[in-house]
Design goal:
Strand content: 15-25%
Helix content: 10-25%
Order of helices and strands: HEEEEHHE
Structural class: alpha+beta
Number of domains: 1
Number of strands: 5
Length: 104
């Protein structure tokens, strides 16, 4: 069974320059993450060991609106649609994968 989330405090974490220690502490601060299988939420760490942190437990200094990524993704995904179709981006959790985990 996975450990309980620890109450760690980070002022900031630069993912491009994070140390192994910082990333390990981030992973420890997460709850165990489930994944969907046959319409159920499953926790199977032999298949995928991942953590999650809900949006009320972290902040991010990135705006998809100011960066222009929302326009790029919208143009790509909705290029075949005419009219007023809108795309909504919403941050709801951070997924954190353990060392050497593959995202599928």
């Amino acid at each position: 069974m996975r450990h309980r989330p620890q109450r760690l405090s980070f002022r900031s974490l630069d993912f491009a320059n994070a140390t192994e220690f910082q990333l390990e502490n981030l992973f420890k601060a997460c709850e165990a993450a489930t994944f969907g299988l046959d319409q159920r939420d499953v926790l199977d760490e032999s298949y995928r060991k991942a953590g999650k942190m809900n949006v009320n437990r972290f902040g991010i200094n990135f705006s998809p609106f100011e960066s222009g990524i929302l326009d790029i993704v919208s143009d790509f995904l909705l290029r075949c649609h005419s009219g007023k179709t809108a795309l909504k981006m919403e941050l709801y959790k951070l997924n954190v994968y353990g060392k050497y985990q593959r995202v599928s």
